[in-house]
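Exercise 7.
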Amino acid sequence: MKKSPRAWYERIDSYLMKLGFTRSDVDPNLYFKVEKDMPPILVLYVDALFLIGADHLIYQCKRKLTFEFEMK
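Solution. The predicted structure, written as tokens, is:
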């Protein structure tokens, strides 16, 4: 059971990297993706995910995450 959160984090971390996100050097739960004018920023907190940025970029990211992970 103790390894379950680590396995989940490694899985989502590798998937976010495949989507083009970069992990912050300061906070390993903060990811960003270089886009034209408004980069999407994603923060992981326990089993929650917070996503900010331009609406169309948030929509694209949520669609891709939904294919890989069960989301509410």
